[in-house]
Amino acid sequence: MFFDPETWVAVAFVLLMVVFGYLGVFKSAMTALDHRAARIKAELDDATRLKEEAAKVLAGYKARSATAEREAADIIANAKSEAERIATEAKAKVEDFVARRTKTAEGKIALAEAQAVADVRAAAAEAAVQAASTILSQSVKGQVADDLLAKGISEVRQKLN
Fold it and tell me: Considering its fold, how many domains does the chain have in total?
């Protein structure tokens, strides 16, 4: 058994463990492992806290985004209704303008028509007076003819105008 290399390896291992125990290597290793475990736990806690904060920030941004989308939809709806209102008002104004222009044009046409009728009557009266003057001057002679002619011309002018 003393000549067996495994025995001497086992004895050396046990002696090494006793020396490590005496020097406090196990305690130092355990302390180092405990510190490392504590540091890892703190890092995991920080990561969890950061993850929760990121989730809160993300939820806040989603809420803001939803609010902004609703506001944008409201703005678009208001703009459409305003555009429709303006278009309706513009259409009404154009129709009113066209109606006023039509009425003005009809008034001008009626006035021009009345003026034309008056001009035609005046021309007809003038032609009638000339024709009557020519006929009467050829058929009636003298002072009586002149009196009748003047009286007839004045009556025709009064009646035609």
Answer: 1
* Enclosing H/E stretch for 10: helix 5-23
Do 129 and 149 form a contact (C-beta atoms < 8 A)?
no
Task: Tell me the C-alpha distance between 113 and 115, whole Å.
Answer: 5
* Per-residue confidence band for 145, with pLDDT thresholds at 50, 70 and 90: low
pTM, entire model: 0.43
**64 pLDDT higher than 90:** yes
Q: Collapsing DSSP states into helix, strand and coil, what is residue 103? A: helix
Cα distances (Å, whole numbers) of residue 1 to 12, 13, 14, 68: 15, 16, 16, 86
Indicate the DSSP class of residue 142: S
Domain containing 31 equals 5-160
pLDDT of residue 142: 66
DSSP 18-86: HHHHHHTHHHHHHHHHHHHHHHHHHHHHHHHHHHHHHHHHHHHHHHHHHHHHHHHHHHHHHHHHHHHHH
The predicted model gives 58-79 an average pLDDT of 95
Q: Is 24 left (phi over 0), alpha (psi -120 to 50) or beta?
A: left
